[in-house]
Amino acid sequence: MDLLSVGRVSGTHHLKGAIKVTSNFDDLEPLNGNKVMVELPTGDVKILTVKKVSKMVDKKWIVEFEELINKTDAGSIQNGTIKVRRDILGIEEDEFLGNDIIGMNVITEDGESIGEIVDIYETAAHDIYVIEDDEFETMIPDAEVFIKKIDFSKREMLVSLIDGMREKKRS
């Protein structure tokens, strides 16, 4: 089962081991009482139990762990990425989020690799995937007519292009 990145440790909070987390998720409270993985910038991994999650402002959260009891402990996971099982957040295996496709390689029906997904623009009609390589930027709407297949195991998206989707990057 793939883990989902829910936020980054942006700092410590007070002296009792709480941390600040920056997240794109609207609600981290389902993490209460669950185990999470914290992947550190060094590549090390810590498994921690969430004791309490509190909303700070906007996309900032305060998270307390049972295993972290002081500011030094909290500082040891600075800049770490918090990852959880998808089911903890109520996301089914067949559902995906923007985070799941960022960095995915994009291939046309002709077998040409056109780069990787670097951004997603949300519009009223549907999301627009932004794909870049060294020379071109491509924008593809998330519609069945263009997105033919997404292979999460290979980290590839198969697409059908029409004229005007690919543009040469400006130097």
Helix/strand order: EEEEEHEHEEEEEEE
Any idea what the radius of gyration is? 19 Å
Give the overall shape, derived from the CA principal axes: elongated
Instruction: Assign the CATH architecture of the largest domain.
Output: Beta Barrel
Helix content: under 10%
Question: Looking at this structure, what is the CATH superfamily of the largest domain?
Answer: RimM
Q: State the domain count.
A: 2
Largest sheet: 7 strands, mixed
The tally of strands reads: 13
Supply the number of helical segments: 2
Your description of this structure?
This protein has helices spanning 71-75, 98-101; strands spanning 3-13, 18-22, 35-39, 45-55, 60-65, 81-85, 105-108, 113-122, 127-132, 136-141, 147-151, 156-159, 166-168. It has two helices and 13 strands, in the order βββββαβαβββββββ. With 171 residues, it is mostly beta strands. The radius of gyration is 19 Å and the shape is elongated. The chain has two domains: 3-89, RimM (Elongation Factor Tu (Ef-tu), domain 3, Beta Barrel), CATH 2.40.30.60; 98-168, SH3 type barrels. The longest helix has 5 residues, at 71-75. The strands form two sheets. It has a seven-stranded mixed β-sheet with strand order 11-12-7-8-9-10-13, with no helix packed on it. It has a six-stranded antiparallel beta barrel with strand order 1-2-5-4-3-6. A hairpin with a 4-residue loop joins strand 8 and strand 9. The model has no long low-confidence stretch (mean pLDDT 90).
